[in-house]
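In the design runs reported in the main text, the only information available to the sequence generator was the tokenized backbone. The following block is the verbatim input for one such run; it is reproduced so that readers can re-run the procedure and compare outputs position by position.
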């Protein structure tokens, strides 16, 4: 198949793992290289950014973007997985009221520490936490720095509360449900979870997995492949047109950047550690700009 690269703004349904979803895409379209940013649990649905070809080298930049979720906490029970798929560990008859919940969520705004779920993909001594949990091994996952920029209640009844959140890298919604419930002197777990946004990937412009799999065209004829630069948020990119520069970059050589074409960029941006070079809408190299000399760290051509 033609060597393509770019992004797919995929909407993953429930009851399928992120790995299985991208494996279906890989087989259907005979792709050589494919990856995804930000795993979604099988019980979760929503946005799963898919990288095709050399765009897989850019996944780390997508993972650092802010993410938005809709989710529901069911009060009164904590499970082994912190969601409805697990076995009940603890139960409580106490159900928090709306005003109490409103007060409780304020503690989670901004920066805080969070311990990921035991069934997460976090590595502990070289092994995935979920595998250790499945084997009934005893282990501890250290708390991580996380960030919440926005959090509010959408709906509340006696036993369930629905929320919307905007959070940063590494934030676990299941851990939030567990911790909020404990702070409210009860137990809780996630009973519904949908990711609606990851950086520039959003629900409104996403393609459903089933719809994507029906497009059995080698060129992805409905234009669901987005250029690599289009889905990267807040980056400084310089367009490379000269063929000799492109050839030099392909061999990992440093090239000179025309400082005149950088005149509109503020100097604070030029001090950033990461600098991108693009060509016809695709990132061709990632590196560092020292004066007017670009030194490539990654090459995508």
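Verbatim output:
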């Amino acid at each position: 198949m033609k060597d393509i690269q770019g992004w797919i703004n995929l909407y993953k349904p429930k009851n399928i793992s992120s790995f299985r979803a991208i494996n279906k895409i890989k087989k259907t379209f005979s792709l050589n290289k494919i990856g995804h940013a930000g795993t979604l649990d099988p019980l979760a649905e929503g946005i799963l950014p898919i990288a095709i070809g050399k765009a897989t080298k850019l996944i780390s930049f997508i993972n650092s973007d802010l993410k938005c979720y809709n989710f529901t906490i069911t009060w009164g029970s904590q499970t082994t997985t912190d969601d409805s798929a697990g076995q009940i560990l603890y139960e409580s008859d106490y159900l928090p009221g709306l005003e109490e919940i409103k007060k409780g969520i304020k503690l989670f705004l901004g920066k805080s520490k969070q311990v990921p779920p035991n069934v997460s993909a976090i590595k502990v001594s070289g092994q995935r936490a979920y595998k250790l949990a499945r084997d009934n091994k005893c282990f501890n996952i250290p708390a991580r720095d996380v960030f919440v920029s926005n959090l509010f209640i959408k709906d509340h009844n006696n036993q369930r509360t629905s929320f919307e959140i905007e959070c940063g890298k590494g934030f676990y919604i299941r851990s939030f449900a567990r911790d909020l419930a404990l702070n409210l002197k009860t137990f809780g777990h996630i009973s519904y979870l949908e990711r609606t946004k990851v950086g520039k990937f959003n629900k409104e412009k996403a393609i459903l997995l089933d719809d994507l799999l029906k497009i059995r065209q080698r060129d992805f004829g409905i234009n669901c492949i987005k250029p690599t630069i289009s889905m990267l948020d807040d980056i400084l990119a310089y367009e490379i047109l000269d063929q000799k520069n492109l050839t030099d970059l392909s061999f990992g050589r440093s090239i000179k950047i025309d400082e005149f074409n950088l005149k509109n960029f503020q100097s604070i941006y030029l001090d950033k550690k990461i600098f991108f070079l693009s060509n016809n809408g695709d990132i061709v190299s990632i590196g560092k700009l020292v004066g007017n000399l670009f030194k490539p760290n990654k090459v995508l051509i």
